[in-house]
Amino acid sequence: MDSAESPRLSRMFATLAAETRIGLATRSGAGRRPAELAAEHGTLVELLRDGTERRLLAAVDAHLDATLRLLTDA
User: Fold this and answer.
1) What is the distance between the alpha carbons of residues 3 and 32, in angstroms, rounded to a whole number?
2) pTM of whole model > 0.70?
3) Which whole-number Å values give the CA distances from 49 to 3, 7, 18, 55, 61, in the listed order?
4) Please, is 10 exposed, middle or buried when counting C-beta atoms within 10 Å of its C-beta (0-12, 13-18, 19+)?
5) Where are the beta strands (DSSP E) in the chain?
6) Which residues, in sequence order, are CB contacts of 27 under 8 Å at separation 6+?
7) How confident is the model over 12-26, as pLDDT tens digits?
8) Are 47 and 3 in contact (CB under 8 A)?
């Protein structure tokens, strides 16, 4: 996010990342397998590199929705 050169965006992302880590830590054992997460994150990186905004945003939404389900259903 820092490469966007937006202090506001960088702070927002840092807060989101920290809150996600806290939530996942409180639900230890409820998350997905590391290999599954790595593959999903790899897809997000590729979409980011491709510059396909619509597909990237849809993938990020799906990723965050899946995480939210894990946090609330576990």
Assistant:
1) 29
2) no
3) 13, 21, 24, 12, 17
4) middle
5) none
6) 70, 71, 74
7) 888 988 887 777 666
8) no
